[in-house]
Amino acid sequence: MQTDHYDYYETLRLYGPSNGLPRGVAREVQLGILVLPSNIDLLVQNIALHHDPYLWGDDVHLFKPERFAKGIAKSTNYNAAAFFPFGLGPRSCVGMSFATTETKIVLSMILQRYTFTLSPAYVHSPMPIVDLQPQHGIQVILEPLHNND
Ligand code: HEM
């Protein structure tokens, strides 16, 4: 990931679509102080680590893009397990670069044509269903920047 999209990273930290990485344990394995028996299912909850005050500080629940101002490595104190919205390792997301580029293109296309503000009707309620979703949708008010757009 590049180091110049603070808002994008902070959005992925607090509201990334992935709630956890499902894994199956094929054979008994020792993981730190834990002994994991074979044939169990695990959910490695990146969302919990992204909301952990021990890793992110007491303001963990605030949207503060400037945490990433010096890049991901410094903001996580070089702990790769503190921030992994696209997973980690060989099965990490193959669509990461595509999703990042697409987000930038779509946002820049919208912002060239509209300003948008959050509607007073919006109720903040992120909800893990399959992925993380706004429970009641996101109502925004679009104002065109140019008359003939
Ligand atoms: C912001 C958008 C996205 C996020 C946060 C995201 C996140 C993730 C995560 C957490 C995983 C699981 C990694 C693991 O289990 O270790 C994953 C896997 C995957 N993602 Fe994404 N993803 C995004 C967009 C996309 C897009 C746009 C595509 C395709 C165009 C895509 C294709 C895949 C595929 C094929 C896998 C399975 C990789 C494998 O099992 O080897 N993702 N993604």
Topology:
Elements: H1 6-15, E1 21-25, E2 29-31, E3 34-36, E4 40-44, H2 46-50, H3 53-56, H4 72-75, H5 96-113, E5 114-118, E6 126-128, E7 132-134, E8 140-144
Antiparallel strand pairs: 1-4, 2-3, 5-8, 6-7
Bound molecules: protoporphyrin IX containing FE (HEM).
What topology, given as strand order, has the largest sheet?
1-4
Number-wise, the strands total 8
| SSE order, one letter for each helix or strand | HEEEEHHHHEEEE
**Uncertain parts:** none
How far the N terminus sits from the C terminus, by CA atoms, comes to 34 Å
Report the structural category: alpha+beta
Query: Radius of gyration from the CA trace?
Result: 18 Å
Q: Which band does the percent of strand residues land in?
A: 15-25%
Number of domains: 1
What is the mean pLDDT? 93
What best-fitting shape do the alpha-carbon axes yield?
elongated
Helix content: 25-40%
Bound small-molecule species = protoporphyrin IX containing FE
| Number of alpha- plus pi-helical segments | 5
Major sheet size, sense and barrel closure:
2 strands, antiparallel
